[in-house]
Amino acid sequence: DGLDEAEGPFEFIVSNPPFHTGTETDRGIAERFVKAAPGYLVRGGRLRVVANTFLRYRQLMEEVFKAVRVVAADDRYLVLEARKK
Q1: Sign of the C-alpha dihedral, residues 82, 18, 13, 4?
Q2: Checking CA distances to 55, which of 16, 40, 69, 81 falls within 20 to 30 Å?
Q3: Could you give the C-alpha distances from 60 to 3, 5, 8, 20, 53, in angstroms and in order?
Q4: Element (H, E) at 28
Q5: Span 29-62, pLDDT tens digits
Q6: What is the sign, positive or negative, of the torsion defined by CA atoms of 62, 10, 80, 17?
Q7: Cα angle 21, 24, 28; round to 5
Q8: How far apart are CA 60 and CA 64, in angstroms?
Q9: pTM confidence score
């Protein structure tokens, strides 16, 4: 549920992080993943995440990366991208 065993650095990380523990909504895995991602990205590297709109991942990514852009969206999903400075 994360990047612990990955050998970076990477130019691009793409994920659709899980948000359930059993039947309960749990953002913990995604929070740890997004917070760890800068340590696995090269300078200028990008993190792209697919998420349900209700999860507020944009705010989480903005806390870590500051600037986040919406790559694609519909009523249910967002594709968000952040770049490591």
Answers
A1: positive
A2: 40
A3: 17, 23, 22, 17, 13
A4: helix 28-36
A5: 888 889 999 999 999 999 999 998 888 889 999 9
A6: negative
A7: 55
A8: 7
A9: 0.87
